[in-house]
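User: You have something folded?
Assistant:
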Amino acid sequence: MFEIFDWIPWTAPIAYVFIGVAVMITGLTIWGHYRPPVRRKGFLGLVTDRSERVYIAIVSFALVMVISFSIVDSNTMIWALSALAISAGILKWG
């Protein structure tokens, strides 16, 4: 039944990421139903609503982490914290 998911090695961190994304999408859907999003222009120069900013923040986080993996002998925790700060800034002021 679930052969479609055999291509990915399911480890706990990968499952946590997929579950986290599913929870975020579900939460944004419910939140948007009760309080419709307001489109505004932030420091990114784009007119976005909250779900678009969440998407941009997730992609930015992933991009920073991919860059960190390409740098030999770098501290992954520092990169993760900086990616988290960038994502939080995008969510708040983006």
